[in-house]
Amino acid sequence: MTGQLMVKAEGVHKSYGPAHILRGIDLEVRSGEVFCLVGPSGSGKSTFLRCINHLERIDGGRLSVDGELVGYRQKGDKLYELKDSEVAAQRRDIGMVFQRFNLFPHMTALANVMEAPVQVKGESKAVARERAERLLDRVGLGDKMGNYPSQLSGGQQQRVAIARALAMEPKLMLFDEPTSALDPELVGDVLDVMRDLAESGMTMIVVTHEMGFAREVGDSLVFMDGGVVVESGHPREVLGNPQHDRTKAFLSKVL
Ligand SMILES: Nc1ncnc2c1ncn2[C@@H]1O[C@H](COP(=O)(O)OP(=O)(O)OP(=O)(O)O)[C@@H](O)[C@H]1O
Ligand SMILES: [Mg+2]
């Protein structure tokens, strides 16, 4: 991977009250990379994604996306907090897909995908619709555009959620266990969409327990535990030849 730096975390700390969750995260994600984040429950994976996406503010360290500090502007050696409107502009470039799909229940698949470009970017409905149709086609739902979420399977809803995130033309996509709420037979279609996205060159950070996906599609893998990076490397190296006892213990449970 020789792309530009897309995400750089240096000593990132985050606490919730007295609970010190992220305890100095250092990592780098390059443009075009599929970066897999694995670790036990409670290790801080979702918290870290939420920091990248401005849903949480970090308490220490530095975090930048595409060369810009998340939530701050640096002048000389001083940091200034960005205004809400500036934060919103930064967040617009980052797509996020959650375990639960969070589609708007009263809108069709097509309307769900058109919503943000029209409402947030002020795009014309015609342009938004054209793109939404193309994206729904791409995720294999060309024949379900008029369905409401309740008329779609979990896997189909998740693919709509991916199309919805892509409609904002993000430069970075964050996936937080996108398949873990799905019935096993629906997981494959969602992973296929993610694989297709990876092949198209999208930069992706993927929290997942799907080690097969990580091994085949991932360019790097980080194992996190207790709010720190324990081990990182190429997925095949880390999964095939883990160096740390905590990594070995975790992998013996999920592989
Ligand atoms: N808003 C919050 N307020 C207080 N504590 C929180 C909050 N969000 C998360 N935590 C705590 O932070 C810790 C890390 O949570 P996080 O959701 O980041 O873990 P995770 O690695 O994503 O776990 P999982 O694999 O179960 O999703 C947990 O102990 C959790 O209880
Ligand atoms: Mg989580």
TrEMBL record:
Single annotated GO MF: ATP binding
Domain ABC transporter: 7-251
Pfam families on file: ABC_tran
Keyword Electron transport listed: no
Top-level taxon of origin: Bacteria
Keywords assigned by UniProt, alphabetized: ATP-binding, Nucleotide-binding, Transport
PROSITE patterns the UniProt entry points to: ABC_TRANSPORTER_1, ABC_TRANSPORTER_2
Keyword Transport: yes
Family the UniProt entry places it in: Belongs to the ABC transporter superfamily.
Name under which the protein is recorded: ATP-binding protein
Species of the source: Streptomyces hydrogenans
